[in-house]
From TrEMBL:
PROSITE patterns: HIS_KIN. CDD domains: HATPase, HisKA. Residues 239-268 are annotated as: Disordered. One of its GO terms (molecular function) is phosphorelay sensor kinase activity. This is histidine kinase. It is an enzyme of class 2 (transferase). Residues 243-255 have a biased composition (Polar residues). The keyword Transferase applies. It holds the Pfam family HATPase_c.
C-alpha cells in the first residue's frame, strides 16, 4: 500500500480516502494510499500517475483556473469537484501540498454531506475556508520557521494556537453549510480586547491601529467577534496597501469590495484604522478614500469583489456574524472620507 516513502502525516490519520503524491515532471505520482482509498476505488495505484484518477471522471472542476494536475505541480492548495465515475461520488478532493514537491489528495464523498441541496456551492465553501484559514496558517508557518532557526520551543505554542484557530474555523464553515446556529453569545467580551487580538492575527506592517480605551463590553461570542474584527481590518489593510511586481508600494486601483487604496500610498504616510465607541455600540474606520454610496450594500454580497484574486467573502462574513448576534451594521463614510463600519448592539 506504500512505497516506503516517509510522509509527514500518516495516511491512516485521514478518515476519508486519501493518497500521497510526489511531483514528477508535468504530472504527479502516487506514493502511498490509505485503506479507505483502496476500498473506494478498488485498485492499486501506488506508482501510477495522479492524472489517471482524474481521467476516470466525466466531470472535473477545480476552484482554481487551471487543470487539476497543473495545480498539483505548481503546489496550489485548491479543491476539485469530481463526478461521473460509475456509482461513485460525487467527490470533493482537497489538494494539500507540502513544501518539497509532495502532498496529499483527500477525497470527501459529497453524498455523505447532510442537506447538500441547501448548501452553498463548492466554489463558495472552498473560498470561505481558504479566506479565513490564511491568517492562522501563515502565523503557524512563520513560527515553525522561527523554531527551526532559533530552536526556541516557545514558538510551538504559537503554532498550536494557530492550529486551534484553524480547527474552529473549519467547524464554523461546516456549521454554515448545514444551516445551523453559528454563534453562542454567552459571555461578556471587551471590545478593546477583541480588536487588539484580531489585529495581532493579520499582517499590518503598513497600517497603524488606534483603539479607544473607553470601548464597551458586550454579551457576545468572543471567537466570532474576533473574526468580525479580523475581516474588517483585513478589508482595510489588504485593499489599502498593495505592492507592484518590484515590491514597491502602490495605490490599489481596483480593490475588493469596492474599497480603493488607502491614503498611505498617496501621501507616504502610514494608513490608519481606528476603533472607537459609539452610543450603543462601536465603529471601525480607516482613512482611505472610502466606499462609494452606490456600493455600500453590494459589498456585503458573498462573492462580490473587484480585486483580482479576491474572494469577496470578508465583509459577507462580517454581515453574517453581526446578524447572528442580533446587532445592526451600517456602512458609511468616516469624517476624513474613509470607510466607517458602525455596529449597534
Amino acid at each position: 500500500m506504500s512505497d516506503g516513502r516517509h510522509t509527514a502525516i500518516p495516511l491512516r490519520e485521514f478518515p476519508d480516502p486519501a493518497l500521497a503524491y510526489t511531483v514528477d515532471g508535468d504530472d504527479a505520482r502516487v506514493t502511498a494510499a490509505n485503506d479507505a482509498f483502496e476500498r473506494q476505488f478498488e485498485q492499486e495505484l501506488v506508482g501510477g500517475r495522479v492524472s489517471t484518477i482524474f481521467d476516470r471522471f466525466n466531470s472535473c472542476d477545480t476552484t482554481g483556473d487551471r487543470e487539476p494536475v497543473s495545480h498539483l505541480v505548481r503546489g496550489d492548495r485548491i479543491g476539485i469537484r469530481l463526478d461521473g465515475y460509475g456509482n461513485r461520488g460525487p467527490f470533493f478532493a482537497r489538494v494539500i501540498p507540502s513544501d518539497d514537491d509532495t502532498g496529499y489528495l483527500v477525497f470527501s464523498d459529497l453524498r455523505e454531506c447532510p442537506d447538500e441541496g441547501y448548501s452553498p456551492g463548492v466554489d463558495q465553501v472552498s473560498s470561505v475556508i481558504s479566506h479565513d484559514l490564511r491568517n492562522p496558517l501563515d502565523v503557524a508557518k512563520a513560527h515553525l520557521r522561527a523554531a527551526e532557526e532559533t530552536g526556541d520551543p516557545e514558538h510551538f505554542e504559537s503554532v498550536a494556537d494557530a492550529h486551534d484557530r484553524m480547527e474552529q474555523i473549519i467547524r464554523d464553515v461546516l456549521t454554515l453549510t448545514r444551516d445551523e446556529a453559528v454563534v453562542q453569545p454567552t459571555e461578556e467580551v471587551a471590545i478593546e480586547t477583541a480588536a487588539r487580538d484580531a489585529w495581532e492575527s493579520i499582517d499590518t506592517e503598513q497600517v497603524e491601529l488606534t483603539v479607544s480605551e473607553s470601548l464597551p463590553t458586550v454579551t457576545a461570542d468572543s471567537d466570532r467577534l474576533q473574526r468580525l474584527f479580523e475581516n474588517v481590518f483585513r478589508n482595510s489593510v489588504e485593499h489599502g496597501v498593495s505592492t507592484d511586481e518590484t515590491g514597491s508600494e502602490q495605490t490599489t486601483e481596483s480593490p475588493a469590495n469596492g474599497h480603493p487604496g488607502a491614503r498611505g500610498e498617496q501621501t507616504g504616510e502610514s494608513a490608519t484604522v481606528v476603533v472607537h465607541p459609539l452610543e450603543g455600540g462601536f465603529y471601525v474606520a480607516d482613512d482611505g478614500p472610502g466606499i462609494p454610496p452606490a456600493k455600500r450594500d453590494v459589498v456585503f454580497t458573498p462573492g462580490y469583489s473587484t480585486r483580482s484574486g479576491g474572494t469577496g467573502l470578508g465583509l459577507a462574513i462580517v454581515d453574517r456574524i453581526v446578524e447572528a448576534h442580533g446587532w445592526n451594521l451600517t456602512l458609511t463614510a468616516a469624517d476624513d472620507g474613509g470607510a466607517r463600519f458602525e455596529i449597534i448592539f
